[in-house]
Design brief:
11 helices, alpha/beta, Purple Acid Phosphatase, chain A, domain 2
C-alpha cells in the first residue's frame, strides 16, 4: 500500500473514532450498540478495501466505480453528521458558558431533534455525490489582449483534470466534448490529467481525434502530473497518432490567426527554489518559439505558472490541477491549500485561470461543481 492509500486508511479510521463519539449524542441503549457495530463494519470494511486494492482509483471497472461512489456517499454522510453534531455540541457548550447555565453531565449523549443531523447529512451527501459532481457549470470571461482587431470575439474553451477512471468514463468525456462544441468555441484547451486510466487511454485519444474537426482550430493539450503516472511514453505515442496539438515545453501558432499557444510540462522539482527555477526554464523553452510581441495563451497544469507568465506579460494562462479543492462555500474554495486554488487571478495586465476540474479521483463535490470555462478575446487598442 502506497502513501496515498495509507493516508486514506488513516483518515477512515479517524472518522470512525469521531463517529463513535458523536453517536452517543444521537442514540442510546441497544440502538447505540447497533450503530457502533455498523460503524465498525463499514469503516473497517472500507479500510480493508483500500489496503487490498491500492490501485483501484485508476484501474477499476465501471461497476466497481459505481459501488465505490455509493460507499463514498455513505462515508461522507457519516463525516457530515459528525461535523453537524460537533457544531451543535460546541454551540450548546458555548451558550451554557455564556449564560452560566448549569451543565447536566448525565445527559451528554442526546441532543434535541437528533434525527435532523443524519437526515441533513444524508441530503448533503446525496447532493454532492450524485448531482453536483456530475453537473457541469459553464462560465464565460472576457480577456483584453493587445492584438489585431481580427481576434476580437475569438473564443477558447477549457476543460481540465478529467481523470479517466472508475468515476469518469469515455461516455462522459464524449458528452463534455459535445457540450464544448455546442458552446461555440474556436478551439479547445485541455490542461492535463486527462489520461488517467491505462485501459481507457487509447479510446480517449481516438475520441479526441474524432472531435478535432468539431472545433475550427482544433484541440490543444498540455501534460498534467497524472500523465506521467500512467505511462508518459505510451500517452505521447497515442497523441502522436492524432491531430491534437500536444505542447511539450513548446509553442505553435494557431493556423490562420495572429495567436500563439504555448504549453509547459508539469514541474516535479522539490523545494521552492528548484520548483520556481524549473517553471522558469520550462516556460523559457516554450516561449523561445514565440515571436516578440505576439499574442500568446499559455497552457500549464500547475497554477503557479501564472506567476512566471505574469513576469513575461503573457495575457492569459490556463491552468488546473487543484480541482478547486472540490469543496467550496460562497464561491470560494473551502480548502485553499494552493497559492492559487480556483478562479481568475489578475497580476498587472496578465490574467491566469485555475480551472475547477471536470473529474476527480474522489467522486464528491459540494460548492465546487465541475466546469466548462470559456475565454473571449477582446482586442485592446
Amino acid at each position: 500500500m502506497g502513501l496515498f492509500g495509507t493516508i486514506l486508511v488513516t483518515f477512515t479510521l479517524l472518522v470512525l473514532v469521531l463517529s463513535l463519539w458523536c453517536s452517543r449524542y444521537l442514540v442510546a441503549g441497544r440502538r447505540w450498540q447497533m450503530v457502533v457495530a455498523v460503524l465498525i463494519l463499514f469503516n473497517g470494511g472500507t479500510a480493508w478495501f483500500i489496503m487490498s486494492n491500492d490501485r483501484w482509483v485508476h484501474q477499476a471497472s465501471a461497476g466497481t466505480g459505481l459501488a465505490v461512489s455509493w460507499d463514498i456517499i455513505v462515508f461522507m454522510g457519516q463525516l457530515i453528521t459528525c461535523v453537524l453534531v460537533l457544531l451543535a455540541v460546541l454551540t450548546r457548550w458555548g451558550w451554557q458558558r455564556m449564560m452560566q447555565v448549569p451543565v447536566d453531565g448525565s445527559r451528554r449523549r442526546l441532543l434535541k431533534k437528533a434525527a435532523l443531523y443524519p437526515a441533513a447529512a444524508a441530503g448533503l451527501s446525496l447532493y454532492g455525490g450524485l448531482y453536483e459532481r456530475n453537473h457541469v457549470v459553464e462560465r464565460s470571461y472576457t480577456i483584453p489582449m493587445t492584438a489585431t482587431k481580427a481576434l476580437t470575439g475569438y473564443r477558447i474553451a477549457q476543460i481540465s483534470d478529467i481523470h479517466l477512471g472508475p468515476f469518469f468514463r469515455i461516455e462522459a468525456l464524449r458528452a463534455l466534448l459535445e457540450q464544448a462544441v455546442n458552446g461555440g468555441a474556436d478551439l479547445l484547451a485541455v490542461t492535463g490529467d486527462l489520461f488517467d486510466d491505462v485501459s481507457q487511454n487509447p479510446a480517449a485519444a481516438r475520441l479526441l481525434e474524432e472531435y478535432v474537426d468539431r472545433f475550427p482550430d482544433g484541440i490543444w493539450f498540455c501534460l498534467g502530473n497524472h500523465e506521467y503516472y500512467r505511462g508518459l511514453p505510451e500517452i505521447q505515442r497515442l497523441l502522436a497518432q492524432t491531430r491534437v496539438h500536444a505542447l511539450y515545453n513548446t509553442a505553435a501558432q494557431v493556423p490562420g490567426h495572429n495567436l500563439w499557444l504555448a504549453g509547459v510540462e508539469y514541474s516535479f522539482a522539490k523545494g521552492e527554489g528548484p520548483f520556481r527555477q524549473q517553471r522558469h526554464d520550462y516556460l523559457a523553452q516554450a516561449m523561445s518559439a514565440v515571436p516578440d510581441g505576439a499574442p500568446v495563451v499559455l497552457l500549464a497544469h500547475h497554477p503557479e505558472f501564472i506567476d512566471e507568465a505574469a513576469e513575461r506579460h503573457i495575457p492569459l494562462t490556463l491552468t488546473g490541477h487543484t480541482h478547486g479543492s472540490q469543496f467550496g462555500i460562497f464561491g470560494l474554495p473551502l480548502f485553499p491549500v494552493f497559492k492559487y486554488t480556483r478562479g481568475m487571478v489578475q497580476i498587472g495586465s496578465s490574467y491566469g485561470y485555475v480551472h475547477s476540474g471536470n473529474g476527480s479521483w474522489f467522486p464528491f463535490r459540494i460548492g465546487c461543481p465541475p466546469e466548462l470555462a470559456y475565454f473571449n478575446i477582446q482586442a485592446e487598442q
